[in-house]
Amino acid sequence: MSKKFLYLFKEGHDAFGGDQTTMKNILGGKGAGLAEMTHAGMPVPQGFTITTEACTQYYADNREINEEIKADIFKYMGILEEQTGKTFGSVDNPLLVSVRSGARQSMPGMMDTILNLGLNDQAVEGLAKKTDNPRFAYDCYRRFIQMYSDVVMELGKSFFEERIDAMKERKGVKQDVELTADDLKELVKEFKQIYREKQGSEFPQDPKEQLIGAVKAVFRSWDNPRANVYRKMNEIPYEWGTAVNVQQMAFGNSGMRSGTGVAFTRNPATGEKKLMGEYLINAQGEDVVAGIRTPSPISKLHEEMPEVYDQFVEIATRLENYYKDMQDMEFTIEDGKLFMLQTRNGKRTAQAALQIACDLVDEGVISEQTAVLRVEPKQLDTLLHPQFDAAALKAAEAIGKGLAASPGSACGRVVFSAEDAEEKVKDEAWKKVVLVRLETSPEDIVGMQVSQGILTVRGGMTSHAAVVARGMGTCCVSGCGNDNDVVIDYDAKTITINGHLFHEGDWMSIDGSTGNIYEGQIATVASTENANFKRFMGWADAARQMKVLTNADNPRDAQNAVDMGAEGIGLCRTEHMFFAEDRIKAVREMICARTVEERKTALAKVEPYQEADFTAMYRIMGDRPMTIRYLDPPLHEFLPTKPEEIEALAKDMGMTTEELNNVVVSLHEFNPMMGHRGCRLCVTYPEIAEMQTNAVIKAALKVSAETGKMITPHIMIPLVGEVKELKYVKDVVVKTADKLIAEAGVDMKYQIGTMIEIPRAALTAGQIAKEADFFSFGTNDLTQMTFGFSRDDAAKFLTAYYDTKIYESDPFQHLDQVGVGKLIKMAAHDGRETNPNLGLGICGEHGGDPSSVEFCHNVGLDYVSCSPYRVPIARLAAAQAAIKAPRAMKD
Ligand code: PEP
Ligand code: MG
C-alpha cells in the first residue's frame, strides 16, 4: 500500500490513536491541534493536512509535488466540497480555502500562509451575489492576489501596499475598512495589472493551479532564510519538513459581526492565570500581525458579542484542560459564529514558564516531573543575566549581528584593549565599557572582567572570548566579522560595522542572547530573582541522575557556580591562574629557562602562587570535589610580544635581548593546538608536574587540617593520547604526592585521571583506563581533532556549511553525536570494561548544552561540568534526560 500523505482533520485523531507525539510528527503542530479540536467537536472549519512526509517527498522530488500526491490533494478537495456543500472554482457557490504551514514545532512567522484561495474573476462575482456583500467579496479577492503574488510568485508586497495607500489618499480615508466595494474592485484591477507587468502573464484563474502553487510555496518556505536561521537557533532538524493545512475559509472580514484574533489561556509574559488576547473586528489574520489597526483586548468581546465570548472561554478552558498546558489559540468570528483555527502550547518567557509550571502542579493538573519537562533549559539563561528593557529594545535597530556567545545584555563605551578597559573603568564617566577586540587572549582576562560586554571580530562559540565570558557570566558577541562588513583599526581606535563608525568612548549595546549589535545606549534591567526558580529546580534535582559540576579557576567563579547549584568543580584550568600581573614574570622565566636548574628556580617562584590559589578554591568548595587540570596550553601563549617586554625579561634573566628573542622564535608553533602542549609539557619538563603536584597536595593538606575533613584531590592530566604518556606523568605525580602525604603523616587519598580529548585516547580507552581513576571528555579538543578543524578558526567557514546544509549547527556548541559522540560512547564502554570503577564526565563546552547533556546521560556519564552560569541549565537538562529515559541506578 502506498504511503498516506493526506489526512482529513476528522481522521487525524483516530489514525494515530490520539498519540500527540506521532500526530505532531506527521501532521505538524497545527494539523495535530486542528485534528484534536475536530475530534472534540469544537467549531473548526473543515479541511485536511498534507503531511510533513509529503514535504520531505517534495524535496526528494527536486521541489516538485508528484502526480500521486497531486491526485490525492484533488481527491481530498472533493471530500471537502461534500463536507461544505460548496464547490472549488464554482461561480455560484465557491469553496475558498486557506493554505497554511505547520511544522512539528511551531516556528512563528517563519513560513508562509495564503488566504482566500479559489477566487477568480467569476468566483468573486458569485461570492458577492451569494453573500449579497460585494465589498467583502472584492476585499477577499484583492487580499488573495496580494498574498499569492507575494508568497507564491515572490513579487513582494510593497507594490500592492503602495496602491492601497494611494487609493486611500484619493478617497480621503484612513483605514482599509473604509474603502468601498467599488474602490476594492478598482484595486483588484490595479493588482492584476501589477501582476501582469511583473510576472509577464495573467493572474492564474484556475483554482487547481492556484492550490498546487500555494502548497508548493509553503513547502518551499521551509527552506527560506528566516526559517533556516530560526531552525538553527532552536535546533530543529531540516529533515523534519513542514505540513500544510488546507482549510475552508472562515471570514473575519465579512462585516461588523465578524473578526479575527489570538488569545492565550494564561499570560505568556508573566504566567498569570488569566485569559489574555486581542482581536480585530472586520479583519483577516494578517491585519492583526501587520499592526495597521490597533486590536481590542479580548475582554471587550465580552461586551460586543457576549455569547461568542462565553463560548470562546469555554473552549479555551477545555483546551487547556485537555493539553494540560497554556494554549495559544487563533480564532475567527464570521457573522457572529465562532471558529477555531489553531491551538498549540503557547510560547512564553522563562518567568512565565516557571509560574505556569508551578501553578499547574499546585492546581493538581500535572506532576512535578511533568512540570520539569515544561521549561526549556536554555530559557533559564534569561533569568540569570541582566536583560535589555523590552520597550527600549523594541525601539532600537540592530546594525550588525555576531554569534550569541554568552547571554545577557551589555551597554557601555567602546574600548579597544583590555588594558584600556582596566584603566578607563577607574574613571566614573567610563564605568561601563564594552571591550571590542579582533579576538581576546588569556592576557585580557582582567580587562574582560571589568567590561560589561565583549565584542570580537573573529572566533566562534568556543573561542577564548566566548568560553571565558560564559565562565564569568559576562555578555559576549563573538565573530561579528564572519557575516558583517567589519573594519577594526587599533591605532585609530575605531571599528566600523556595516558602515557604522565607532570611536573609542562611543556607546555601544550588545545582546549576547541574540548576537545583535546596536549603536548607543539601551537601558538594561537587573535579572529577576524568581521565587519559583528554587522550587522548580528542587524538582529537577530530585529527578536527575548525573551530577552537575562546573568549570572554574578562580574563587569568584567557583562561588558563583556553587550559588547556581554546582556540586563541585569538574575542570580547574590551572593556566588561567598564570596570567595575573604578579606571576606572569615567573611563568615566563620558567618557560625561557635554559637549564633544569633555572627552570626549577622559576617554578619555585610560581609554586606558592599556585598553592595559594588552590587553597582559596578548596576553602570555597568545602566537601565538594575539585578536579585540577595540569598545565595545558602551548607555551608561546605566555610569552611577551612587545619589544620593551622582551627587553625587560631578558634583563631579569641575565640574557641578551637577542638570546631571548631566539628562545621566543624557537617556541613559535605552526599549529599550536597540535603542538607542544598538554601532557607533552610534563613529559618534556617533569618539573612542571612536580611543582603543580606540590601546590595541589600542600593546599589540600592545609585546608583538610583547617576543616578536619580530609580532601581527596582529583588531578587531571590533559591531552593524553597514549597510555604510556599518562603513566609517565602519573609516576611523577604519585612520587611527589606520596612523599608530601607521608611527611604530613596523614591518610590522604587522591585520584589521577585524564582528559579524553584526542581521538587516539578514545580509540585506546581500554588501555588508558588501566592507569586512570577517571575520564573527563574534553569535547572542545575532541571535536576539533575529530573534525580536523581548529576551534578558533571554524567560524570563518562554518556559515557556508550551514548555508549548504552540510552541517546544521556548530559542532563546538552542540555535540556531534554521530561522530564525536561515537568516540565518547566507545571510550566510556571500553574504559569501564577495563576499570569498572572508572569515573566518567565531560568538561568541554558541551557540558552546558541541553541536547549534549541529554546525550551524556544516555551514554551513562556520571557528571557534566560547565561554566557557572550554565549550571542551572545543565541541572534541568540532566533532569529532563533522566525523566525521558531513566538509567538503571548503579549500586
Ligand atoms: C576541552 O578540550 O574540551 C577542554 C575542556 O579543555 P580546553 O578547552 O581547556 O582545551
Ligand atoms: Mg582541551
From TrEMBL:
Residues holding Mg(2+): E757, D781
Pyruvate phosphate dikinase AMP/ATP-binding domain span: 25-298, 311-357
PEP-utilising enzyme mobile domain span: 432-515
Statement: the UniProt record of this protein carries the keyword Magnesium: yes
Residues bound to substrate: R573, R629, E757, G778, T779, N780, D781
Residues of the PEP-utilising enzyme C-terminal domain: 529-881
Obligatory cofactor(s): Mg(2+)
Pfam families cross-referenced by the UniProt entry: PEP-utilizers (PF00391), PEP-utilizers_C (PF02896), PPDK_N (PF01326)
Record's protein name: Pyruvate, phosphate dikinase
Organismal lineage: Bacteria, Bacillati, Bacillota, Clostridia, Eubacteriales
Recorded name of the encoding gene: ppdK
